[in-house]
Design goal:
The protein is of the alpha/beta class and about 425 residues long. The protein is built from 17 helices and 5 strands. Strand 3, helix 11 and strand 4 (about 295-305) form a beta-alpha-beta unit.
Amino acid sequence: MASNIFLDENWQKSYLKKTKERSGPRYIPELNVDLPIAEIFDGISRTKNFYYSIREHYGKLTRAFGYVSGKYENLDAQNLYKNLKTEISQLSKTLSKIKSYDTKRISWVQINKCIQKVNEILWKLSDKLREERDKAEKQKSGEVQSNPQSITERLGADIHYLYETQKELRFFEGLSLSTKAKLSNLPFLFLTGIAGAGKTHLLCDLVESRLKKGLPAVLVFGELFATSDEPFIQITRQLGLEKINKNKFLSLLNNAGKQSGCRAILAIDALNETRQRNFWKRNLKRVVDEVKKYPHIALVVSVRTGFEEEVITEKLKRSFICEEHRGFEKMEWESVNKFFKEFRLPLHEIPLLMPEFQHPLFLLLFCRGCQTRTGNNKGKKQKEIFRGHEGATYIFESFVDGVSKKIAKQFNIPNSPG
């Protein structure tokens, strides 16, 4: 058994099981779709993947520029190359420091400014080399150049490697402006999204994937903050760690992050579902202030779009990096394909309603409605979902009717026939 409970394998397994039970139908691992938004958690936690990606592209950048010959008869081209080499050397000094896990601030603004200078010079050099290559091409049939073919080949190769250099610069330019980069320096995420966008699923998948790698992460649910007790008492209560006080809890989680070589994740899902009125407006700042004392902990909170003002002040919001979870946007095909295969539905017969299928909950209800319409067919793949407006309408009406029956049964109220 590990000395730190948040790194103890048995505790992690038990905790993960409880988390899945508490999330209920909001987390279905079999329907998980790998979404780009998940990459921001590599940044907030500064995982090995975060550093590996930077080191990989840094290596590609230095190799690509290293292949540029840098020897030109044209004086303007030679001066541009010297200036470019100087600026890339400055950029390399900054990037080379991002090697392995620590909590030091990364100079993303400086990196971006340096990239702008490099790009400006690189474009000018590329244009100049194209001009020189065109001149050499015209001299192929003349007698001025003794070996024009080798010159055009060398210039062509340099232009190619400058293009490869530029590709890697684009990576770092995008990274320097990204939410992932911002979170690497300010590990406080305020995640928003409309109802059914998949916020709970995203956080549950985050915790499960981290725990399976032996990395520290805990998730608690806003709906279970049921008393006026201060937040950390209720957090440890949800985790089954009532005997641990606030300072001990944060110290253990912080040390677990430090030992693991990445920030530990403390996530609170659905602040808007806490029944105590203004609970988070009164208490969220306390949570933030306490977590700030521990450099190896990252705080993630989620709230349904439209409820922000109920849980956080504008002043406190500036302590967070905000990101919106937009469901399956730009991942519609992968999502539809995954869901339809899981529900054994014939993909080719369904019109792809792209805007609607960006919404995870809609896609789930749609698939369940189709399943209700056609039946399980004894485990066999369905041959047909519906035809025309009547069939489509039935799918949605049947699901709504099913939900209404559950509500009627739960609250012992009459249900009108569906």
